[in-house]
Amino acid sequence: QGLRWLVGLHDARLNGILADDMGLGKTVQVIALLCYLVEVRGEVGPFLIAAPSSVLPNWAGELARWAPRLKVVDYHGSAETREQIWLEQVGWGPGGWGSCVYEFLMGRYDRPRLSRLRYCHIIVDEGHRLKNAGCKLNSELAHYRTSSRLLLTGTPLQNRLDELWSLLNFLMPSLFDSGDDFAAWFSAPLDALRGAGGCGSREGDVLRPFMLRRLKESVASELPAKSEVVLTAALGPYQASLMDIVKNGFQRAAAVGGINKAVNNTVMEMRNICNHPFISKLHPELGESFLPHTAQRHCGLPPLVTLCGKMELLDRLLVRLHNHHTTGGCGGCGGFRHKVLLFATMTRALDLVEEYLEWRGFEWARLDGSTAAAERGALIADFNRPDSDTFIFLLSLKAGGVGLNLQAADTVILYDTDWNPQLDLQAQARAHRIGQTREVRVFRLLTAGTIEQHIAAVAEEK
What we know:
By secondary structure, the chain is an alpha/beta fold. It contains 21 helices and 15 strands. The chain folds into two domains: 2-217, 3-Layer(aba) Sandwich (Rossmann fold); 226-461, P-loop containing nucleotide triphosphate hydrolases (Rossmann fold), CATH 3.40.50. It has helices at 2-12, 26-39, 56-66, 79-88, 102-105, 110-114, 136-141, 161-171, 179-193, 201-207, 216-219, 237-257, 259-275, 293-296, 303-306, 309-323, 347-360, 373-384, 397-400, 421-428, 451-461; strands spanning 16-18, 47-51, 72-75, 97-101, 118-124, 145-152, 211-212, 226-233, 325-326, 336-337, 340-344, 364-367, 392-396, 411-414, 440-447. Strands 3-4-2-5-6-1-7 form a seven-stranded parallel sheet, with helices on both faces. A six-stranded parallel sheet has the order 8-15-14-11-13-12, with helices on both faces. A two-stranded antiparallel sheet has the order 9-10.
């Protein structure tokens, strides 16, 4: 169905959004389209994929797996490397396929030459990045000439209706030229349907030609179940003391510097303390050494664990997961050990979890915004190997929460909660996707009676 819809768009010379639920194989559907156009229709390309750097290795791997005969050019690397790629490989022949990260498509030296080519198709992966009509990526991609544009996103609408208009405006600026008209047309029916979980006939009639969206429960009933459990931790005494200082400081800051700035600073500091007091600006370097010994250690655990309620909870959870084996697989050959994805919104929190894993002796891997593109594919491939020793994969929510296939994991831990619930859903879909054979359990860690519970409530409301 997805391939037929994509071919139909091509034949009608329409642009569109493939908005299937996360984990339903949008990448494979696009590769199938490419193969069809090249082998059946005789299209000569070139084709271009624009993607975040974190998912470029996944595209390379899937193209090599499903379309090994296609000529593929990965346009990335240092300035010297990209220059060499341009001179030696960008003479894309029949069936040529180029993949490029956003930053280079917008690069001062890259965009002028890359935009000189006329593309058969431009596919923008993680297309929700264009939800802001005024963003640089949106304006830079307007310089690229193409016969067809296709956006891939599992979350076409995240927060506001104008985000969907921005995507449609990028695809068909002459048809969706006014955000105000779009809002007036859709707002009333959407408000009436809020909470109904459906889409009215007006919305369906307007969007059906341009957007295909299918949910896992409707097209992938064989997919194992996913369940979510919220685990709450109490603030430790040291955390509670730091929190009191922040609350008292908020009142003074609001009186001096203005309420908005005071709120923003206070909320961020409260989140820091919940994630770990060592992240807090109020915690001096090695400040834990000045606390009474009884406050630092108990049950043989280091201050890294004992001074943070959430870290202590994480320790109990990971020790249990690491020691517990589930039956399955090949009958008498033994069980599977749980494999875990841990997502955090802050890399500083990942730093501390990494330090904890070293102390415990658990095998781990890590991917965040600082991980080189060349390393990402190898990290993912190693984690997914059946004989991999890696127990837990640490990922920053924004760099590791989109476009990655990590079906080897059966457990997802959300160390903290983002204001945008779609980011958390995207993270969960790294494991709960086509190819998963085991039930996926999601553990959301929250600190009781703090800003974290408020953030979770706001996200749930959205």
